Amino acid sequence: MPSLLHDVPGPTRKATFAMACFWEPDAIYGARKGVVRTRVGYSGGTKQNPTYKDLGDHTETIDIDYDANEVTYSELLDLFWNNHDATAKTTLQYTSIIFYHDNEQKCLAEKTLAEEARKKKDPIVTKILPATTFHDAEDYHQKYRLQQHPTLMKAINLEPGPKVKTSHLAARLNGYVVGIGGVEQFDGEVKKLGLDEKTAKVVRDLVEKNKGQRLVC
Questions:
Q1: Which positions are catalytic?
Q2: How far apart (Å, rounded) are the C-alpha atoms in residues 64 and 61?
Q3: pLDDT tens for each residue of 30-53
Q4: What is the DSSP string of 158-186?
Q5: Does residue 62 have a pLDDT over 80?
Q6: Strand, helix or coil at 49?
Q7: Contact 174/30 with Cβ under 8 angstroms?
Q8: Alpha-carbon dihedral sign for residues 52, 34, 153, 210
Q9: What is the pTM of this model?
Q10: Whole-angstrom Cα distance, residue 38 to residue 19?
Q11: Quick one: pLDDT band at residue 212, thresholds 50, 70, 90?
Q12: Which residues touch 51 (CB under 8 Å, ≥6 apart)?
């Protein structure tokens, strides 16, 4: 019986973005090659122990662990700019922010912001800020798209809780179930992810069914 790939050893780097909400980015980044883990939460503010119903001055944010040998920070920035409206004027909860973890990330973020600003008619509202404390969102927000398929969750030995945030398999399937990544990419990962054919067929059918559909938070 195949071993489910929940844990991926080895060094990773971190990227943190706020891009209007966090369910959609969680799916988009989770299916990106080189992304090891994702979790959603609240960042950027000073309020202690923020919650979804009491965010204070925090913003909905996604935190990403990635393998720099498989995906670059520049590629992650491309996903950031191409998957939300960086000109939208919103409340602080849903605003656009790049939280950098080192000077290299800061420089790349500033470079790409300048490039995007030249393409846009309206001014970009995206802020570039140093990463601070990341507060995990409630369990029901983690891998939200995957959690809408309880039978699939059971098949991969997961239930809402801490493991959902750290599971590589959960991150991947959270994107695939809404059609992100495509069938060819998914089929190339089935054995590595440790999925049996019955479970793989369920996921494959969802990839086909939902491919190209626009995600709504």
A1: 21
A2: 10
A3: 999 999 999 999 999 999 999 999
A4: --SSHHHHH-HHHHHHHHHTTT-SHHHHH
A5: yes
A6: coil
A7: yes
A8: positive
A9: 0.94
A10: 14
A11: confident
A12: 138
Whose tokens are 């030249």? That residue is: 118
State what percent of residues in the chain have pLDDT above 90.
94
Secondary structure element (H or E) that encloses residue 193, with its range = helix 182-193
**Other residues' Cβ atoms within 10 Å of the Cβ of residue 82:** 10
Closest CA to 80 of 44, 115, 37, 47: 115
Q: Is 201 helix (H, G, I), strand (E, B) or coil?
A: helix
216, 212, 172, 163: which is closest to 194 by C-alpha?
Answer: 172
Distances (CA, A) of 209 to 18, 27, 96, 166, 180: 28, 16, 30, 27, 11
Tens digits of residue pLDDT in 73-95: 999 999 999 999 999 999 999 99
- Residue 2 above 70 pLDDT? no
Does the structure show a pLDDT above 90 at 214? no
Structure tokens at 15: 């990227």
| Rounded distance between C-alpha atoms, residue 213 and residue 28, angstroms | 12
| d(C-alpha 60, C-alpha 41), whole Å | 6
- Which pair of tokens denotes residue 203? 């996921």
Rounded Cα–Cα distance for residues 200 and 76 (Å):
27
**DSSP H stretches of helix in 70-181:** 73-82, 103-119, 144-147, 150-155, 162-166, 168-176
Task: Give the tokens for residue 33.
Answer: 């090659």
**Token pair recorded at residue 7:** 């844990």
